[in-house]
Design a protein that fits this description.
The complex is a heterodimer. Chain A is an alpha/beta fold. Chain A has 23 helices and 19 strands. In chain A, strand 5, helix 7 (135-147) and strand 6 form a beta-alpha-beta unit. The longest helix of chain A is centred in the N-terminal third of the chain and has 15 residues, at 48-62. Chain B has 4 helices and 8 strands; from the N terminus they run βαββαββαββαβ. Chain B has helices spanning 17-27, 56-68, 100-109, 130-140, and strands at 3-12, 32-39, 45-54, 72-77, 84-95, 113-117, 121-128, 145-157. The longest helix of chain B is centred in the middle third of the chain and has 13 residues, at 56-68. Chain B is elongated, with a radius of gyration of 18 Å. Classes of the chains: A alpha/beta, B alpha+beta.
């Protein structure tokens, strides 16, 4: 059997149906095998980074392993951002790259780069397969490692002579032997018992849930527990959708752009139960002042997360779904107490609010609310990074898990469109919406062609404020409006110390997104005022193919609530620049 | 408080396993005092000894991170564990220009081994506990250490 056939067979045995890829010299033999194959669908992206984000979107929206296939050298280096994005958000993907022939490794051959070395710090595990006899085992291990324990990306680098080599008596292994890799699934019963005891006795308990709920599929268990015990809960960006946004006990997202009630509940609780969340600095704010009165319990499948950022009294290493179902058996009904009523009152008293006048340019929040209102119940949205991402986190009514795909850990601009593509390929029956800013959208805008040619019906909403809005917001609030290189309309003859839109601004803004869409074979629509938002969305959602919807939005809108970097998370700017304590 | 910790690991003998270990440590911003890797009784399994000067919390975190590496089977911080015998091997070139007889006496006292005896210097080797090595080096320091090579610390489980 040839190396290329071993690879294709391994992919099929692992249940892979779609590969996102880009060919090149050393992987021609593998693409030749794919040329003759009728089972695997290969989608030709227009950039390797987008291929990896697409595999990532495929994986996030389904829980299955996403696969990308690229060539050596620049093909391999272009995947690094995608791999790091998946690593930081614990997404199971396998990235297969070609490598120069074994004999050429280490000679700085044409398109040679040390892929297993490059990926080492940004992936869960990496392989260089220098012998065809290892191919089957490596694929078996790679898929197992990617999706078990705390999921993550695995890189497989294959020299071209291994792809073309042959071997006899080949069989794909049916199990893995990894003495150094044994994820803990069931939590320690003593710790779970201790946690149950603390929950029963706590005056002010709070659940702090994250991406681990989605990764382990623990949504049902989480809701059963909070409803049984009447304990309010917050969810990080990565966990959004694990509970319906309108759940009566849900306080919203905490952190830098977190809701007032969520942040204050985090600061004032006496028992904080983290489940599949990692006390990221964007959530905790000033860590030395975080949750000063709380006993901290932490349920996580990754033991290295426990105690990493905060001191943890009750560590429970295990899979969230598994641990929560064991925990539930030990819990008794708790009445809604004063604490619960108080935090829900905070939530009621601090609704999200923004300004929107009739016949004017839209507020970005209004666009998100409209998408939320008009989208299908089970629509999947993928975002880029920046203001629109935070507006989507705050204003979109998240309904279902695996329906909000966003680069939380790495914060990768250019993620939205390709991730939406991956989700659309994986979920042909669902409506897939990319929500992007005009900055990030241009970072992988070439994928519009891929959408058009492969009939991938992504509806891309571009919230165009002509700025790199989140950086501009920081410059606005903390840097005396020094809008340094954030205006996407800026020309070489603009005055150097611009502090915002004025009468001298250049008339034209490039690119014209509607024309870009049309040039790529994608339908293009534009809403210049609030009144046009709904009709553009309706027309777009009714169209069977991919669409770019350009929404002109208010240029200098800021995301609130906001906790300045380095502050405690109850030192919130609510929008009128008044500090509420 | 920062203290010296000796971490003993069992790892699978694969290409790049040392790169993964050292890469992880530098990536997390720690500095390695010394590191030794050598085959164990099973040729597929290597023992790695790693010495780091860090606080208790950081050592715990780095041990957990090391444990996460797919090729790492077991990580033990043996610093405060009485059940381990810790040894280091040194070779040292010492100037013998002054008080040569005192120096020879010290070498005998510490049971160090004479490897070479030249007109102006001598070379000795010694194996011992970290404390014995430290004491010996302190004692010969005034004579003038011209060159020092140390194996780094390694340990074996006693019980």
């Amino acid at each position: 059997m040839k190396g290329s056939d071993i690879i294709l067979e391994a992919l099929k045995k692992e249940g892979v149906s779609t590969i996102f890829g880009y060919p090149g010299g050393v992987v021609i033999p593998l693409f030749d095998a794919l040329y003759h194959d009728r089972e695997l669908r290969v989608i030709l992206n227009r950039h390797e980074q987008a291929a990896v984000h697409a595999a990532d979107g495929f994986a996030r929206s389904t829980g299955k392993v996403g696969v990308a296939l690229v060539t050596s050298g620049p093909g391999a280096t272009n995947t690094i951002t995608g791999i790091a994005t998946a690593k930081l958000d614990s997404v199971p993907i396998v990235v297969i790259s070609g490598q120069v022939k074994n004999d050429f490794i280490g000679t700085d051959g044409f398109q040679e780069v040390d892929m297993s070395g490059l990926t080492r710090p940004v992936c869960k595990h990496s392989y260089l397969v220098s012998d065809i006899r290892d191919l089957g085992r490596v694929f078996k291990e790679a898929f197992y490692i990617a999706q078990s324990g705390r999921p993550g990306p695995v890189s497989i680098d294959i020299p071209t002579d291994v792809i073309t080599a042959s071997m006899r008596n080949y069989q794909y292994p049916d199990k893995v032997e990894l003495p150094g890799y044994k994820p803990t699934i069931a939590g320690n019963p003593r710790q779970i018992k201790k946690l149950a005891h603390e929950i029963q006795n706590a005056e002010k308990p709070l659940f702090y849930t994250g991406g681990g709920i989605v990764a382990s599929g623990a949504e049902k268990e989480l809701l059963e527990i909070v409803e049984l015990t009447n304990i309010p809960f917050v969810s990080t960006l990565m966990g959004l959708g694990s509970a319906p946004a309108d759940h009566p006990l849900f306080l919203g997202m905490p952190g830098m752009h977190g809701r007032y009630a969520a942040n204050h509940a985090m600061m004032q609780c006496d028992l904080l139960i983290a489940v599949g969340a990692r006390f990221d600095d964007r959530v905790t704010g000033d860590i030395s002042r975080f949750a000063p009165n709380a006993l901290i319990a932490h349920i996580d499948i990754d033991p290295a997360e426990i105690g990493k950022n905060v001191h943890t009294e009750i560590p429970v290493v295990g899979d969230a779904k598994h641990v929560l179902s064991s925990l539930k058996l030990l819990l008794k009904h708790r009445e809604s107490n004063g604490w619960c009523k108080a935090v829900l009152k905070w939530k009621e008293e601090t609704p999200l609010a923004y300004r929107q006048k009739e016949n004017e340019v839209s507020a970005p929040q209004y666009v998100i609310e409209s998408i939320s209102r008009l989208a299908d119940e089970d629509a999947v949205i993928a975002t880029d990074v920046g203001q629109h991402q935070m507006f989507a986190a705050l204003y979109y009514k998240h309904r279902k898990p695996r329906s909000f795909l966003s680069s939380g850990g790495l914060g990768t601009m250019g993620f939205g469109l390709p991730a939406a593509m991956g989700a659309a390929v994986a979920n042909p029956e669902k409506q897939i919406i990319a929500i992007c800013g005009d900055g990030g959208f241009q970072m992988n805008i070439q994928e519009l062609t891929t959408c058009a040619l492969n009939n991938i019906p992504v509806k891309a909403a571009v919230l165009n404020n002509e700025y790199l809005g989140m950086v501009r917001q920081w410059q606005d609030i903390f840097w005396n409006k020094h809008y340094s290189k954030v205006c996407l309309r800026q020309r070489s003859d603009c005055p150097p110390n611009c502090k915002g839109p004025n009468s001298q601004c250049p008339e034209k803004y490039f690119p014209d997104f509607v024309k870009v869409a049309e040039a790529n074979g994608v339908k293009g629509l534009r809403a210049e005022t609030k009144e046009q938002v709904e009709s553009v969305l309706k027309e777009s959602f009714a169209h069977p193919g991919p669409v770019v919807m350009e929404f002109l939005v208010r240029k200098e809108e800021n995301v609130y609530p906001m906790v300045p970097a380095g502050k405690a998370i109850d030192e919130i700017l609510m929008g009128d620049e008044r500090v509420l304590i | 408080m920062k203290e010296k910790h000796t971490i003993r690991m069992k790892v699978v003998n694969t290409v790049g396993v040392m790169a993964r270990i050292t890469g992880l440590i530098s990536q997390r911003g720690y500095n390695i005092d010394n590191i030794i890797a050598s085959p164990s009784e099973d040729p597929n399994i290597y023992t790695v000894h790693l010495v780091l000067t860090e606080t208790e919390e950081k050592i715990e975190q780095i041990s957990k991170q090391l444990n996460k590496l797919v090729d790492v089977i077991k990580v033990t911080d043996i610093s405060h564990n009485k059940n381990y015998i810790v040894r280091e091997f040194i070779m040292v070139k010492i100037s013998s220009n002054k008080n040569r007889s005192d120096l020879l006496q010290l070498i005998e006292l510490f049971e160090a081994k004479m490897l070479d005896l030249a007109a102006h210097y001598l070379v000795v080797s010694m194996t011992g506990s970290p404390r014995k090595i430290r004491r010996f080096l302190e004692a010969v320091h005034p004579f003038g250490i011209m060159e020092l090579d140390r194996s780094g610390e390694f340990a074996v489980k006693d019980v």
